[in-house]
Amino acid sequence: MTEPEKEIEKNYTYDKQKLVEFLKNLTKEIDSGELKIGKEQVKIPDTNMDVEYGFKIEGGQKEIEIEIKWKK
Fold it and tell me: I need a surface site. Which of 7, 41, 43, 54 has the fewest CB within 10 A?
């Protein structure tokens, strides 16, 4: 049985120090093997994952994007 398609995004505004704290907590959750996004629990596998990150400037706004993908 395959999982239904789903997308959840959360948006926050942080100063640099709060962003660092957020990323540290995110790292701890990933290390524990389970990440909570909203009400969803996401299991993080021990297997290989594809990681993509980049930087862009568009319309005067700067963006850093990190994407992590894996298959069951």
Answer: 7
